[in-house]
Amino acid sequence: MKTQIKFLAVLLMMPLLFLACSKDDDPADNDLFVGTYNGTISYNSGSTSISTETGKVTVVKTGNNYDFKFSDGIPDLNGVEFRKDENEAISIGDVNKYIKITAGKLIIGYNADGTTWTADCDR
Prior knowledge:
Blueprint: H1 2-20, E1 35-45, E2 48-62, E3 65-70, E4 77-80, E5 82-85, E6 88-91, E7 97-102, E8 105-112, E9 115-122
Antiparallel strand pairs: 1-2, 1-9, 2-3, 3-4, 5-6, 6-7, 7-8, 8-9
C-alpha cells in the first residue's frame, strides 16, 4: 500500500515539474540583462573626455526602466526606457539615443544635450 501511495504522489507531482520548466519563457521578460558588462566605454562632454578599453557598465533594472552605471568616473545613464523583442531590448527614443542589450552584449551610442556615452561590451 505504501508503494502505491508513493507512486501516486510522484505521478501527481510530475505535471508541476513540467509547468515550472516551461520552454515558452521569454528571456526578455526576465532580468537577463541585469549584470556587469566589460569592454570599451567612453564619455565626452565639453572639455571632459574619458575613454578606456577595460571599462565596466553595470545594468540595473528600476521598475520598467534600466540604469547604466559606468566605471572610470563616467556619469551614469538613468531611467532608460526599452522596447523588448525576443532576446534583446532596444532603447526607445530618437536615433541619438541608441542602446541595445542582450544577455551577452551591450552596445551604447547615446547623445543627449551635447554629451555622448558609448559602450561596446560583453558579459
